[in-house]
Amino acid sequence: MPARKFAAEVIEKLHNEGNKIIIITGRYKTQEDSEMGQRMRDYTVQWLKNNNII
User: Structural domain boundaries of the chain?
Assistant: First the structure.
């Protein structure tokens, strides 16, 4: 699923203005200290990178 239109640009602008960016997500099992939890965290980080979200 792609990010919302202009999300990356808006977040980058806010970041460049000196704002601290905190992304809150409700991804499945990311809070677990397990192999599955790590995979889900890695997936989330990769999704952010793929969508150019800093």
Answer: 7-50
Please answer whether residues 11 and 17 qualify as being in contact, where contact means their C-beta atoms are separated by less than 8 angstroms. Answer: no
Give the separation between CA 23 and CA 39, rounded to whole angstroms.
18
Q: What is the pLDDT of residues 10-36, one digit of tens each?
A: 999 999 999 999 999 888 899 999 999
The amino acid occupying position 12 is: E
Give me 42's structure tokens.
């890695």
pTM summary value: 0.81
* DSSP line for the chain: -PPPTTHHHHHHHHHHTTPPP------TTTTSSSHHHHHHHHHHHHHHHHTT--
